Amino acid sequence: MSDKIDVLIYGPLKPLVEKGLSAQFSTYSCRGVADVEALPADVAARIRGLAVTGLVQANAAMLARFPRLEMVASFGVGYDHVDVNYAREHNIIVTNTPDVLTEEVADTALGLLIATLREFIPAERYVREGKWPGGNFRLSPHSLRDRTVGIVGMGRIGQAIARRVEASAVPVVYHSRRPVEGLKYKHYPNLIEMAKDVDTLILITPGGPSTAKMINADVLKALGRRGVVINVARGSVVDEEALIAALKDGTIAAAGLDVFASEPNVPKALIEMDNVVLLPHIASASVTTRDAMDQLVVDNLKNWFSGKPPITPVPETPFKGR
Ligand code: NAP
Ligand code: 8YV
Predict the structure, then answer these.
(1) 67 and 120: one domain?
(2) Which residues of 240-259 are buried (b: 16+ CB within 10 A; e: fewer)?
(3) Catalytic annotation on 263?
(4) 193-238 tens-digit pLDDT
(5) Does residue 310 lie within any of the structural domains?
(6) Nearest residue by C-alpha to atom 10 in ligand 2
């Protein structure tokens, strides 16, 4: 048996993670729950590090299989798929991949907003279908020009989105539980009050219980008939049924969605609508940014098992020394 530390890679295959870890560790790979369940008990008993490389669930039952686990290095800045309470109670450090994806995700949010307002997707289809010689594409009923944007979640990515919206000469306000010190944008402690004052919401909070379905029928009603919702946060943040109803009956005007309640399944009702733009959770999905995220997963594990502190521990499992 090798004296290398045993690390399990859990989730879809990531060549950069496999390559980065296999030089220093004995690595095992599990694509999904069935693979984890099939892992021999003696291997599970040796695993000390876990690289969670996609949106697989690292829940308590899964984590409990690894009694010697010290670190869960998760891919993505959001870690609602990792049971951080279990990890904290068992002295396991959880790390995520913040910052390296901030600007990419903010780019996507602004692109999705403009594509939704200015109907880029049907306009592009119009050209491909050879319709342009028969007449110009319709004028878009919506524009960024006459809007006020309310950002829900004003952390790293929320602030990067705010900078872009501001550079587009559009007023920005925001909602979060606490105001961000030193930020000039107006803070609304109450989401409904903000929704009443704006016509555009950009969602960029974490998922999980504290934000579950926070964009509900009342918020959508407050947003009003010109309302546009852009979701680059998590599908769980929106009451999807209420959103579909609001888009159907004109309570709000349109939506741009990168995330959904039950990915990769997108409700048929949304697919059939003209007033939505639907993306398959690609906000961070460029080669450059995904490589940087993969590298941070690898570096967190390498640092930890070389005796150094974790690079990006999540706030629920802070590094307090060894
Ligand atoms: P961050 O810096 O931690 O910011 C999170 C923001 O959300 C903070 O302003 C926080 O403020 C606010 N927030 C948290 N819980 C809230 C609640 N219950 N109600 C209202 N506001 C709340 O995180 P980030 O780096 O900006 O990333 C944010 C999230 O974006 C991630 O967790 C992930 O879910 C999502 N994301 C999605 C993609 C994608 O591919 N679509 C890519 C990257 C990130 P308070 O704590 O003061 O409330
Ligand atoms: C990832 C994300 O694509 O960072 C996040 O929170 O949602 C995305 O950047 C996602 O984690 C895929 O696994």
Answers:
(1) no
(2) bebbbebbeeebbbbbbbbb
(3) yes
(4) 999 999 999 999 999 999 999 999 999 999 999 999 999 999 999 9
(5) no
(6) 76
